[in-house]
Amino acid sequence: MKINYFFDNINNVMKKYKNILAINFGGIGDEIFFLPALISLKKEFPDSKITLALEPRSKSVKDLTDIIDDMFLIDIKGKNKYLELLKLVSLARKGQFDIVVSSGGNKFISILLWLTGIKSRYGYDTGALSRKLLTKAVPLNKNQYACAMYHDLVAPLTDYKTELPEVNITPQPKRHDTVLIHPGVSKISVQKGCIKTVGAEIWAQVVELLVQKGKHVILAGGPDDKECIETILNTITCNDSVNFENYYGKTRSMKELGELISSAEKFLCSDSAPLHVAVALKTKTYVIFGPTDDKKLIPQSENVIAIKASDNCPLKPCLWERRLTTCEKLDCLKITPEYIAAKVTE
Question: Could you give the residue ranges of the DSSP H alpha helices within the chain?
Answer without folding.
Answer: 2-16, 28-44, 81-94, 108-115, 128-133, 146-151, 187-191, 200-212, 226-235, 254-263, 273-281, 294-297, 337-345
